[in-house]
Design a protein that fits this description.
about 20% strand, about 210 residues, globular, five-stranded parallel sheet
């Protein structure tokens, strides 16, 4: 399915998630690109919206290649297999990890005014992003939820995902709802006609608008 933009993706996903309408579920979006999608889902299903903060740990000299990720509450995952292949030690990633943790805290202040997520124990979480390539940041988000907040159910809602990554993530969650599962995912943007960067200001605006409508 070719998507017009993130708003379109959110509306299409909402159609597949109607079983959660008017329930105690909560929509958690990964900033920044997941937030416009999460907003559409939350509005159509009458659910609260919040953000879950995760940052990719990029390879030194090639930051777009994710070797791991950090989430809130000092949750961290590292791709040990890739690190061995490229001869990278955790010590060589320390500066990058510290930088990403600082950015995570900045976003926490910006998006949530420093507050933590609400209690999610025994609730359903609809975890949202515009797409997943390697899955490293999403695995960190899921680990954070499972270990720290213990929801009853995690539903992953995505615009696009690679088939191998989807199979891996399905082992960690309760349900996957994805508009495009493809054999070879080279770029998430390929599946969107419009794929402009979402700004901090847009994230803050959508979160504020969502809270007013609750």
């Amino acid at each position: 399915m070719k998507l017009i933009d993130r708003v379109h993706a959110g509306r299409q996903l909402a159609k597949k998630l109607t079983a959660y309408q008017d329930t105690s579920a909560i929509v958690l979006a990964l900033p920044r690109g997941g937030v416009p999608i999460g907003f559409e889902i939350s509005q159509r299903l009458n659910l609260p919206l919040d953000v879950i903060l995760v940052r990719k740990i990029g390879m030194p000299g090639q930051p777009e290649y994710g070797l791991g990720a950090v989430a809130e509450s000092d949750v961290e995952i590292l791709d040990q297999k890739s690190m061995m292949v490229f001869g990278i030690t955790k010590k060589s990633l320390v500066d990058t990890i510290l930088q990403e943790r600082a950015e995570l805290k900045r976003r926490q202040r910006k998006y949530r005014q420093g507050r933590f997520l609400p209690a999610l124990k025994n609730k359903t979480v609809i975890l949202v992003d515009d797409g997943v390539a390697t899955g490293v940041t999403m695995r960190a988000a899921i680990k954070f939820l499972r270990e720290k907040l213990k929801p009853r159910e995690i539903v992953l809602a995505l615009g696009v995902c690679g088939i191998d990554t989807a199979a891996e993530l399905e082992q960690l969650i309760d349900k996957l709802v994805c508009l495009n599962i493809v054999p070879h995912l080279h770029a998430i943007s390929q599946f969107y006609q419009e794929f402009e960067q979402t700004s901090d200001e847009e994230v803050v605006e959508l979160l504020a608008k969502s809270s007013k409508l609750e």
